[in-house]
Amino acid sequence: TVGTQTDYRDGEAQTDPYSPQYVIPSGSVPELLTLATLTWGRGLPAGLAEVEMIERAREKRAREATLPATNSASNIVKRRKMMDDMERNEWAFREQEIEKLQEVRLEVLKKLLQRRGENQNELDAKRLDDHWQNHQKAKEDKFKKIQHDFALMLRKLIAKRKTVMGKLERRDIIEEYTDSSSQTYVPLSRIGYFPDNHSECYVVKNFYLDTFAGLCELEASLPDSVTQVKIKAPKPKYTTTKTGFIKRSARLEVDLAQVHQ
After folding, report:
1. Count of domains in the chain?
2. Which keywords fit this entry according to its UniProt record (predicted)?
3. Closest CA to 198 of 185, 189, 206, 209
4. pLDDT value, residue 198
């Protein structure tokens, strides 16, 4: 049935195709037994290389069938010569197979070397980028230090100009705040940002806040819960039951009250 998977059914749930048992009659050598070394996943399904191997084995068996018998000296010499030719052909074929295998290995080695070179180039580029970033950061830090030193020296020069006669004048905060023309009392906007410029634009003008009628209307629109506060007294916790026994959770409070008394 459709729901049953057996050993004789070649389906998607079966790992390897089914190979039935066989019996060889005496005196017969089936050609299929020459392919017994090929299994599923190792030569099967057959590709171009397996087909060439099968054809070569057939040619070899055909040549072996044409070998003369060893009943005479001339046949022995001829047989030996044919066997030598077959052996040379076999060795030539094996050399070709070795060359093909070496070429495949060489291609794989080239790809590996190319991949290693690409990885090394990426690593070198990353290292150069990190080195450049470190130099950029060091340069920015140096610029910041130069600017900081420049501002410090400039402040020192300004302070030095204030003491032309060599006498150090300290800051008198009280005098600055009492002097109407000082920078602290009336700061100049050309020196820095003056926060009081155009300050009238931030004044809030509202009908409900500036007029008495607006205040009355605002108060009338508020609910009673805002103007009239209602406080509910907390209900005492009942520590005793209806029968007069003290609850287990309230025994400690009763003991504390007795000790306090």
Report:
1. 1
2. Cell projection, Cytoplasm, Cytoskeleton
3. 189
4. 73
